[in-house]
């Protein structure tokens, strides 16, 4: 796999991880709307975080929440005042999944969406830069080397150096194996190696080195 593809794959994995919470919450909200049941929950506590943020703590009926856990939600002032007065709140919940619920009058924050969109934009810019760099790199012609020896395994790293006798030593990752030749990826460019009867026992995506004459 080329460095460009590895970079794009990494960006894609990060994008999935960043967007997964938002996708999951959206999926849960859709399921609550579609398959949820309406119940009346008993308010166990109320409180205020700020002058405009109201919290209610409640317990759902045992038929939908056998464990009788306590749940919380941030609600608007009207719902909060009603909860204080009646000690009840209306909740829509998936009957076999009490953690998937929505309180009537619940207030949700858009912070998660804003952060996700911002990170997505950064990832998009990163992907475009990787693609642009790859495009510039593809625009450079491959060097061509005629091997003067068998291709050998070596340590990871890119090398392109001229020897005292005028030959060149090249080292890089094998990114293609074709009939009678291989292609080495040096990071900023590629070198096409004509084996010229010599042997290659180095596999795909493995570090390899060879000495020979540059002919192009």
Structure keywords:
alpha+beta, rod-shaped, transmembrane helix, transmembrane, single chain, membrane, 3 domains, five-stranded antiparallel β-sheet, 3 helices, 216 residues
Descriptive notes:
The structure is a single chain. The chain is an alpha+beta fold and 216 residues long. It has three domains: 1-35 and 109-139, no CATH class; 38-92; 143-214, no CATH class. It contains three helices and twelve strands. It has helices at residues 3-35, 77-86, 111-139, and strands at residues 37-50, 53-59, 70-75, 88-94, 97-103, 143-147, 152-153, 159-162, 168-178, 181-185, 190-194, 207-214. The strands form two sheets. It has a five-stranded antiparallel β-sheet. Helix 1 runs antiparallel to helix 3 (111-139). The longest helix has 33 residues, at 3-35. It starts with a helix and ends with a strand. The mean pLDDT is 89. Keywords: Membrane, Transmembrane, Transmembrane helix. The chain crosses the membrane at residues 111-131.
Strand order of the largest sheet: 3-2-1-4-5
Rg estimate, integer Å: 31 Å
Q: What level of helicity do the residues show?
A: 25-40%
Distance between the termini: 25 Å
Structural class assignment: alpha+beta
Percent range for β-strand residues = 35-45%
Number of strands: 12
Number of domains: 3
Basic shape: rod-shaped
